[in-house]
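Subject: sequence -> structure tokens, single chain

Hey, anyone have a minute? Need the predicted structure for the following. Not urgent.
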Amino acid sequence: MRLMGRAIADEPRIFSLAVAGSVLFSLVTVGTAYAFGAITEHVVQPALKRDEVDVAALVSAGLVVLAISILKIIGILGRRLAGGVMAFRQFARYRRRVANKLVRLPAQGRPTGDLLSVANSDVEAAWFIIMPLPFAVGTVAMVVVAIVALFVTDWALALFGLALFPLIFFMNMLYSSVLTPRTRTAQKLRGEVSAVAHESFDGALIVKALGRGEHESVRFETKVNQLRDAQVSVGRIRGLFNPAMDALPALATVAALFVGVVRLQSGAVTIADLVTVAYLLTAVAFPLRSFGWVLGELPRSIAGWERIRGVLDASEGPAPGTTPLANNGQPIRVDVKDLVLSYDGQQPVLRDVNVAIPAGKTIALVGATGSGKTTLVQSLINLLKPQRGEIQLDNVPLGDIEPASLSERVAWVGQSTFLFDDTVAQNITLYGSFSEDEIWRALELAHAAEFVQALPDGLNTRLGERGVSLSGGQRQRLALARALVRRPALLLLDDATSAVDPKVERAILKGLRSGVSETTVVLVAYRRASISLADEVAYLEEGRILAQGSHDELLATVPGYAAVVTAYETNMAEAPS
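Reply:
Had a minute. Here:
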């Protein structure tokens, strides 16, 4: 009921229009019973007795039927159009709400395919019930008026005809309770199927390259079979209940007709009364059946709504800050104090990290795999929330900074490059207001201008999904240009040039030192040539910064640092060309 009430509160005017159409249809339906009874008694029966049709009476009857039909059409159109508009507005409204919520949630969470299922099939499942809801509400008037009319017409026929209706109501409730857990399971499995499919498609190249196609097919088939079994279970319940729900009203009408024939012969009722009662019983059965349909769809709607709420009610963490960073064209100073961060809330990935990065300087983060470099970089842009400690940018706590201001002044280029299926220019600007000169300057700093000029349409060349037409190094350079075009005061490079030729990487980093003097740079680096360009190096080991200083100082005094740098160069030298 809360779900339906929420929909009504979202669209009160449309719902009122839909209910008005439904009430009109309901009242006309009850009136039709009396009209058909009168036509049977005053037109059909005399014609059968005299074997002659009264043309005037027939025309009058035809006009009455035409008027009834027109009013019914108006009612049906009103309720269906308004109900459809209401449902599709809810689809759009909650897809927007889910999408808006997802961009505010922490980066780690549920599988992408499962979230896509929430935004698509779960939203439709939750609000599809809105389409028949106005009719179900409007037919309350039909039931009340029809039952009153039945007793006014003949109380005995009414009692016989309505005797089975409590059983119908009970079966509707039983139907809903039995169907709910099965529908909830099916809806959950839809999300799991979507998640497996998305994962397989996303990793299609790896699946093909490593010959894992058959394994992925089996994994997908297993989930699909589970979903099939769950839906068959739902269908089996519907198959058992639906025929009974259809048969009971018909049995009630037949019972009333048997009694009606006896009362007709005794003169207690007229032929018009009998036709009216039969039609009214049919009219009462129809809305009760529609209630049954709503109750049958309700479990699916509830299951969809529960999954939507799982996203909408998810914690976003602390409230976003409201303090803007000064946009003065100066580089940002970074201070990290006693930082502790873990992904599972138990095993820390960063342990009491302390580091100070002067404004305008370049610092390299070096450490073995799993030492916490990426985690530290992502925490500097607020993608990850520490459990303890503090990060300050220009003496402002990171949590207090306004998100829009942070995005404007800080740029991050991650290990994995993502390009949109759009033009080169739009991938760099992300539809921001940058001039073509600014785009080319960023491309030149990223050493990407030459290959972009060689593309068929230059900046207007479409790159395809994820930039599939480019090499890994080219994609990384475009991602770097995307960050540089914004002239950030703090630039975070998380192994952002790993796919670039070492000579090109060194040229890029040299260009950054001379071309972005207004920027503080934090980079995760492995190559000695790249590390040596940094003003300072911070060496991480098991989530702690063990040493900070120049490359030469650490190389001479920190064995672990020397081992990491030497091991990387040895591996590169031994790698086949």
